[in-house]
Amino acid sequence: MLYAWIDGEKRAPRAKGERTFCRDCGGLLTSVMPVSNVPHWRHKVADCDSWSEPEGLWHLGWKERFDLSCREIGLIDEMTGERHRADVICGLGTPKATVLELQHSSISDDERIKREAFYRRSHRMFWLVHIHSESSFLGYNFGLSMDFQSRRIQLDGKTFAVMHWMGRSKQFIEKWMRASAHVFFDFGGYILYLAGEGVAARLGGPFEPGEFALCRLSAEEFLRAVHWKD
Description:
By secondary structure, the chain is an alpha+beta fold. The protein folds into 2 domains: 1-48, no CATH class; 50-230, no CATH class. The chain has 6 helices and 14 strands. It has helices at residues 57-63, 109-119, 137-145, 171-177, 197-202, 219-226, and strands at 4-6, 9-11, 19-21, 28-32, 40-43, 71-76, 83-90, 98-103, 124-130, 152-155, 158-164, 182-187, 190-194, 211-217. The strands form 3 sheets. Strands 6-7-8-9-12-13-14-11-10 form a 9-stranded mixed sheet. It has a 3-stranded antiparallel sheet with strand order 3-4-5, with no helix packed on it. Strand 1 (4-6) and strand 2 (9-11) form a beta hairpin. It is globular and about 55 Å long. The two termini are 31 Å apart.
């Protein structure tokens, strides 16, 4: 976790040896000041969020675009006691509450479904998936698939482009098309909104196997969407 409460302030660690307690579980936290990664807090025993993953500069960069009060918010299922820490929640406690999960590493279908089931009980949910290396197999196939010219469709004032996944395996794009939350990709300096089943139907779908539709947004447009602003 990048932030914790220490001496009445929510912040990242500033020095080696700092200690504080997790406000969600009460467990002891110690500061970690790595040479090649961002400073963060580590539970002394085990993280109370079983979904916690290593975080780096990409996570930090996006979290810092939101007010500190929106970052790393602990939620608990009162019925089961299950607790998890959302990367970002905007509008907490209002009808427009939105969870943003930042996904840098790969994630299985089962894990995606579990997270959506937990966060979507009482929140709107967005995924932001980082396609972070154009030289990787996934990044290469993703870039090769980008076609914003051949088949363009206007919907609700936005331009969607229907394209075909160029990789041999369609597992990645099909997994995210099945998501029950809104899915965005961070790739090539743009945010790309993936048309889920409902939007795909309005675009003339269902699509052929391997087909998918994206809408290109700026970072500012994406941030307005998370905040639920026009």
